[in-house]
Amino acid sequence: MDLSLRLLRHGYDAVAADRAAHGVPPDAGTHATRLVGRRAVVVRSEPGVRFFYDESAAERKGVVPPPLAWLLFGRGALHGMDGDPHRDRKRAMVDVLSAGGLGPLVARVAEELDGAAATWPGREVSVHPTLVSAYGRAVLAWAGLDLDDDRADTVARRLSQQVDGFGFAGPAYVRGWASRLWWDRYATGLAADLRAGRAGTGADAPAARLVRSIDADDRTAGVELGNILRPTIAVSWLGTFAALRLADLPVWRERLADPGEELARMAFAQEVRRTTPFAPVLAARATRPATIDGVRVRRGDRLVLDIMGIDHDPARWEAPHEFRPERFLDHAPGAFDLVPQGGGHPAGHRCPGESLTLRVLEATLRVLAGVPYEVADPAVDLTRMPTTPRDGLVVRVPAGAPRRSGRASSPGSA
What we know:
The protein is about 50% helix and about 10% strand. By secondary structure, it is an alpha+beta fold. It has one domain: CATH 1.10.630.10. It has a five-stranded mixed beta sheet with strand order 1-2-8-5-3. A three-stranded antiparallel beta sheet has the order 4-10-9. Helix 6 runs antiparallel to helix 7 and helix 9 crosses helix 10. The longest helix has about 30 residues. It starts with a helix and ends in a 17-residue tail after the last strand.
């Protein structure tokens, strides 16, 4: 069976199933298979990961099929570029993130989530849509887009639906494309207004700076604006799993509620990223031949980065299938050992929003650790991509339950 079909059938366990079907030992770092009908090499060992992120050895352009790439990233986006064009546009986008400062964004996340949590006592609440709203309102305000709460929630929901559809999960895929088409129309006009100073936001706001820095038409600038906003909203999938893990570990919940335990919250966030990565694989194309772990790589072969295998590799992680946040308290993972958002150097194809993801999760944990909730149903469907606990993780909060405010500690400044 083609690995693409295994991904549809097995989801996050697809590569493990593919390895078993080919008779490859579970500890093998590299094996050959087929992806979308073409020869592919799945890499998990450090030499394989290094090859995947070597820009002289691998390229991304045209590798992800348009029905997926255009849904999640948009047509003409940074993610399908290579070489100098990729570096130049990524530098412009990273500069906007850096100049905008992450501190105000993270502080706004804590404020929005703390306000939402104040309404939870005596109710059942679905965590995931709550996080989509809180993160969406926060990142849109940080970008300088002056939207009322209802409009901000609509934009956040539309961007989250693009993310939810990327795994070809039936109705979610259709909703994702409907929201992609909606966003492209909305963002094209927004980019034009921002460039012309008609959007009612300051010229130094991150959204305005970004669209001016993109040397392309309004449609492409709008696509890249979405690629700045959407990743913050996508952290809601990780935030939902963080909420589930907190419910499982009451000792850690008590510890993380302490305002002085920021490092512990960061360690907990890293373990959430390791154990429940957003996607099971990434793909590229080999531009030169090589031999990795005895497996021949030919020019033109697809390369598949086994994210689940790397982040659960017993050669890298002790008891890899156990949730142990303490492993990150005194250990900084290597650039090729923890890859839930890619590996290698951030100047390459590693996600530039990794530090933001960690800080948003830290702020989320600080709020949720102070809320005495119970999980209604912890079941997770690992065949669906991306996945969350059932119904977005429904939690129950007793009426009159005391809680610690998420505003007890400042997340700091950029």
